[in-house]
Design brief:
8 strands; 11 helices; 18% strand; Rossmann fold
């Protein structure tokens, strides 16, 4: 069992997309028991990625000690267990320092607990880091996002939580993007996943279904499966579809 906090210092990099697809890939393709937790209390999105819009019991009520954490666990048709955060407006935010205590009560029921942290480096993110056994840092491959990621990395280091690695999202291979070697040298972190920009991901978000569940053949889906293999430390080879075989044959001619 391992609790992985998934964080980013900059908003809009696709952290929740990584969380939802990693959770789905671990369950669907590797048979793992996974609990995905929306640790972003201020602006929660994880539930939306799974089509969950109006759950009565959420992490918010758990942190307020109104309900037991087991009452806030929902089982998605994919098999992913999810604890959403409340989408309702809040005057006062719950005490997120209780996050580790609450998750510790149920973590032994799972192979992986993935906490989708808030963007930035505020109180909620610190609670996510403290509740985690290791951290995944999500970034885009541009200079601004990487520099922001360095700030988050320093906090992770200060809290003495291991950094599992860096996941680059929305990779397009354009001139303005930093090279892999540059990023690893600057961050002193290993890149363990590269997710290409994929229009199918945008479609999947609008359909509130992780792309690995919507269409497992897309470039992004295959990259998420590779990331899941890395995280689970299992060997995985993508099976070549008939369409891929046809395209490969034409390229050989």
């Amino acid at each position: 069992m391992v609790v992985i906090g998934i964080i980013s210092a900059k908003g809009g990099v696709g952290k929740t997309t990584v969380t939802s697809n990693l959770a789905s890939a671990l369950v669907k393709f590797f048979g793992k028991r996974v609990l995905a937790v929306d640790g972003n209390i201020t602006t929660p999105n994880l539930g939306i990625h799974f089509g969950m819009l109006s759950q009565e019991n959420t992490l918010t009520e758990v942190l307020e000690d109104k309900i037991d954490i087991t009452q806030a666990i929902y089982i998605h048709p994919s098999g992913v267990h999810i604890i959403p955060a409340s989408l309702g407006a809040m005057v006062e935010h719950p005490d997120t320092s209780k996050l580790k205590e609450k998750i510790d009560r149920v973590k032994d029921n799972y192979d992986f607990v993935l906490i989708d942290g808030a963007a930035g480096i505020g109180r909620e993110v610190i609670s996510t880091i403290r509740a985690s056994d290791q951290i995944l840092l999500v970034s885009n491959p541009d200079m601004a996002a990487i520099i922001s990621g360095l700030k988050a990395k320093k906090i992770v280091h200060a809290l003495n939580v291991p950094l599992r690695g860096l996941v680059l999202n929305k990779v397009e291979g354009k001139d303005h993007e930093m090279k892999i070697e540059q990023i690893e040298e600057l961050t002193e972190a290993r890149i363990i996943g590269q997710i290409p920009f994929d229009k199918k991901v945008i479609e999947s978000i609008s359909k509130m279904t992780p792309v690995v569940l919507l269409d497992g053949r897309t470039r992004a889906s295959r990259s998420f499966k590779k990331l899941a293999a890395e995280i689970s430390e299992e060997f995985y080879v993508e099976k070549e579809s008939i369409w891929d075989k046809i395209k490969r044959l034409f390229r050989l001619r």
